[in-house]
Design a protein that fits this description.
The chain is of the alpha/beta class. It has 17 helices and 15 strands. InterPro entries: DNA_recomb/repair_RecN, P-loop_NTPase, RecF/RecN/SMC_N.
């Protein structure tokens, strides 16, 4: 509900604040007094276009601010949480325009994008201006009307979830089928690559290991020569180092009792001699194990050449990477064998989800077909009530493939003159007819769903007398369930107000500005009498106006 609207420095509005009733708010005033300017300012906080030409004083910023009560609106609370905005029982939407033309939007004093402001405002206010009837010709709106009146909105939500599940499964099925096509396209090449690696039959770290062996075999004679010379010098020369160390140790031992450090030195010489003897024997063993093997060397060179060729082919540098590619290729080849089974399972699951969605869609369709005649009857009765006795609405329902809202295509058809030539509403109804048709439909829908604040800007154009009275009755009934704000020129509608605002111009220091005030009961009677009989109403007009206000 819109609790209050504050406007500053907008067109000929200097500054004003309007506090609205939660029921039927009527705004009247002379032509040109500024009623449409109020709607323009309100449209700013609904995300409408901003223009610096509306600034009254070019040295000050212009702003419009609306305070809303949102207690119990889950979609609003969800929006605020989803956008990290502060929530509460009250919500403040503000729009500012600077002299430079820069526009800023705020929700609860937090800067937001214009799109965020628009999205939230659409949950709070439904502004229906004269000739603003595109929504009525919208298939989504028409379907929503029928579902709301048939109390099918919960079932529709259930269907949409099922439809989403089916679509998701169908997409996954398509991806599997595309994957299969890709698999078969690459199957022969992948099999060739895999067979090539399998035939090579490399073991873990094999190429790195035989590369080291290659270095050894390539230098076998030189290494063996060095080892043999070391063994000879240590153990078999005329003066072997091992023998010389042994003699040194023996010579020192005979004098070790004469000096405290000599036993230690003798022991160290003995240890060194033993270690060198062990080294000599190990050298001999290593030397015996090193042989020049041309056949092995040739095999290793051939093995490495094959490995390096595969390295280059697959852009890798290690045996481990090559084996990883082999395992990946094996998985791809196995996937080709498994994918048909996966596709069959996904096809079955997708068909099951489709059938489940279809059952709910058929339930929705049955409810829509059942509700359509009742909608037509109720709307046509209301149309006759507001001065359109020859007008007829027909809700045409045709079957379609499964889609986001079911299996129905819904089109509102209209015949203004009992010609039995029904055409789509958007093509044949005039602006005034559409406005009144929208009022009738929304008054019916309001019984079933929580509509936002409804604002009607001169919806009464082209009607008068009894028709105006009936429009006022419909608005009054509508306002019993939700807030309605209406700008009108019709006294019969103004007489139904719970709160009556009067817009007027005043001159202050040679400057004209728009202002607004709430009328008392007596002021209302006078204002309505003036709407009936001119600036100086007769006693009959005043009595008529009093009757309208009281009744």
């Amino acid at each position: 509900m819109l609790q209050s609207l504050h406007i500053q420095n907008y067109a000929i509005i200097d500054q004003l604040t309007i506090g609205f009733s939660h029921q039927l708010n009527i705004i009247t005033g002379e032509t040109g007094a500024g009623k449409s300017i109020l709607m323009g300012a309100l449209n700013l906080i609904l995300g409408g276009r901003a223009d610096t030409s509306v600034l009254r004083n070019n040295e000050q910023k212009c702003y419009a601010e609306g305070t809303f009560s949102v207690d119990g609106k889950p979609e609003v609370i969800h929006f605020l949480k989803a956008n990290d905005l502060e929530d509460g029982k009250e919500l403040v939407l503000r729009r500012e325009i600077t002299a430079s033309g820069k526009s800023r939007a705020f929700i609860n004093d937090t800067p937001v994008t214009l799109q965020q402001l628009k999205e939230l405002a659409s949950m709070l206010v439904d502004l229906h201006q004269q000739f603003d009837t595109l929504e009525l010709g919208n298939a989504g709106f028409q379907r929503m009307v029928l579902d709301a009146m048939a109390n099918q909105l919960p079932l529709l939500q259930q269907y949409r979830q099922q439809f989403h599940n089916w679509q998701k499964s169908a997409t996954e099925l398509q991806q599997l089928q595309e994957q299969k096509a890709g698999f078969h396209k690459e199957l022969d090449y992948n099999r060739f690559l895999y067979d090539e690696l399998e035939e090579a039959n490399f073991s873990e770290n094999e190429l790195e290991d035989i590369d080291k062996e290659l270095q050894l075999l390539s230098n076998a004679e030189d290494i063996k020569g060095v080892l043999d010379r070391l063994f000879f010098d240590l153990k078999e020369s005329e003066q072997p180092i091992v023998g010389t160390l042994k003699q040194m140790a023996n010579q020192l031992q005979q004098y070790q009792s004469y000096h405290a450090q000599l036993p230690s030195l003798a022991t160290r010489l003995q240890s060194t001699q033993i270690e060198l003897l062990d080294i000599a024997n190990e050298i001999a063993g290593v030397s015996e194990g090193i042989t020049s093997d041309p056949q092995r060397l040739s095999w290793i060179n051939e093995r490495l050449a094959n490995g390096y060729k595969l390295f280059k082919k697959h852009s890798v540098q290690t045996t481990a990477e090559l084996l990883a590619i082999q395992r990946e290729l094996q998985q791809k080849l196995q996937a080709v064998l498994n994918i048909d089974e996966s596709i069959a399972e996904k096809q079955a699951a997708t068909e099951q989800l489709y059938q489940q969605a279809l059952v709910i869609a058929q339930q929705l369709s049955a409810a829509r077909h059942q509700q359509a005649p009742e909608l037509e009857q109720q709307v046509n009765q209301l149309l006759a009530q507001i001065g359109m006795p020859n007008a007829r609405l027909k809700a045409a329902i045709t079957e379609s493939a499964l889609q986001a809202d079911g299996i129905d295509v819904i089109e509102f058809l209209f015949d203004a003159n009992k010609s039995n030539r029904f055409e789509p509403v958007r093509k044949v109804a005039s602006g005034g007819e559409l406005s009144r048709l929208m009022l009738c439909i929304k008054s019916l829908v309001a019984r079933s769903i929580d509509l936002p604040t409804l604002i009607f800007d001169e919806i009464d154009t082209g009607i008068s007398g009894e028709a105006s009275k009936q429009v006022g009755i419909i608005m009054k009934n509508l306002a019993a369930q939700r807030q309605v704000i209406a700008i009108t020129h019709q006294p019969q509608i103004a007489g139904k107000a719970d709160r009556h605002f009067y817009v007027y111009k005043e001159t202050f220091e040679e400057t004209v500005k728009t202002n607004i005030r709430i009328l008392t009961t007596e002021e209302r009677i006078t204002a309505i009498a003036q709407m009936l009989g001119g600036e100086k109403p007769t006693a009959a007009a005043l009595e008529n106006a009093r009757e309208m206000v009281i009744n």
